[in-house]
């Protein structure tokens, strides 16, 4: 059973998310918080597997909550999935940089929200397709120094990274490349180690920044 807390300053939204998640097999909501400070306290008290956190809350916003629960200085991090009504605003990059394992829109259906929670609980990540496309646009317009790997990525690591950045889960990557789940995880771990990154979200962002993923002709993303 995946234990989840929900943090949102609007009670109807919290109630809706609780009902949605509790209806999912293998997921249980174990607490709710109405602001960021309460969310951090609740998370430390009940130690959920995943915290589903709104981006805009009083006290502490979703970025600050994510940093306190899942940041690189947290000794025992809790997986965070950020959820928002905004397609892409100034907080998205900050939330992902702070350590969020997922980013969803509140309009996402029950299946996608459930999958995001399961992915986060399993150390994976899921980002709303709309947000992924907008992230690509942001990175394609930005000029920034791109870190270089400590050693060149192998051809298979490049393949896995490209599919990861396109939003595929580990299982989907394995099916696409005819690899076992364990092999996919090994390649992702290799990519993270060579780049000095913490998680697959950062790896996906690096793929965008380094030009390894491009827009397709209309159906989403495609590897270069």
Automatic annotation (TrEMBL):
Source organism, top-level taxon: Bacteria
UniProt KW Transferase keyword: no
Keywords assigned by UniProt, alphabetized: DNA-binding, Phosphoprotein, Transcription, Transcription regulation
Domain Response regulatory per the UniProt entry, residue ranges: 3-121
HTH luxR-type domain: residues covered: 146-211
Modified residues (4-aspartylphosphate): 54
Pfam name, any one: GerE
SMART domains xrefs: HTH_LUXR, REC
The name this protein goes by in its record: Response regulator transcription factor
Classification lineage: Bacteria, Bacillati, Actinomycetota, Actinomycetes, Glycomycetales
């Amino acid at each position: 059973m995946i234990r989840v807390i929900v943090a949102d300053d609007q009670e109807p939204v919290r109630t809706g998310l609780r009902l949605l998640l509790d209806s999912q097999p293998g997921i249980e909501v174990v607490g709710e918080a109405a602001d960021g400070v309460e969310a951090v306290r609740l998370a430390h008290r009940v130690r959920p597997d995943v915290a589903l956190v709104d981006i805009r809350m009083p006290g502490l916003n979703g970025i600050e909550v994510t940093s306190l629960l899942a940041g690189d200085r947290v000794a025992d991090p809790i997986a965070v999935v950020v959820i928002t009504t905004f397609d892409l605003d100034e907080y998205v990059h900050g939330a992902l940089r702070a350590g969020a394992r997922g980013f969803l829109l509140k309009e996402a259906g029950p299946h996608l929200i459930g999958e995001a929670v399961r992915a986060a609980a399993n150390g994976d990540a899921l980002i709303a397709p709309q947000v992924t496309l907008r992230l690509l646009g942001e990175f394609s317009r930005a000029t920034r120094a791109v870190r270089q790997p400590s050693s060149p990525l192998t051809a298979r690591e490049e393949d896995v990274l490209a599919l990861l950045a396109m939003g595929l889960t580990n299982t989907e990557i394995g099916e696409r490349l005819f690899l076992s789940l364990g092999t996919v995880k090994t390649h992702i771990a290799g990519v993270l180690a060579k780049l000095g990154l913490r998680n697959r979200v950062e790896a996906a962002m690096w793929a965008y920044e380094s030009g390894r993923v491009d827009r397709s002709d209309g159906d989403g993303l495609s590897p270069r």
